[in-house]
Amino acid sequence: MPLPVELRDAAAGTFGLRLPGGRELALVLRAEGERLLAQAPGQPALPLVYLGEGTFGAAFDATLRLRLVSEVGRIIGVVLQQAGHTLEGSRQD
After folding, report:
1. Are 79 and 69 in contact, with CB atoms under 8 Å apart?
2. 58-92 pLDDT, tens per residue?
3. Is 28 exposed, middle or buried (0-12, 13-18, 19+ CB in 10 A)?
4. I want to staple 24 with a disulfide (CB 3.0 to 4.6 A). Which of 1, 16, 28, 37 is the partner?
5. Exposure of 67 by Cβ count < 10 A (0-12 exposed, 13-18 middle, 19+ buried)?
6. Is residue 93 over pLDDT 80?
């Protein structure tokens, strides 16, 4: 499914994912052409596939889902789910 340009641009930014134990991990989403890339510190960028309705997945991992959380047309956070684990994060920029 093609990624709407306005959603791609609105999603770009840094989000603080809350890890168990209270630590926070920066997750950077950035637009590259018609794709959205996700990157955590020290990790390679992960290209995300748009699945529709503000949800993305990874082409190589069917268990990974990234859902954008919006409020009044602005992306304010993300929910990352993988293999039964859920992390939530809010926009940092």
Report:
1. yes
2. 988 889 999 999 998 899 999 999 988 999 999 99
3. middle
4. 16
5. middle
6. no
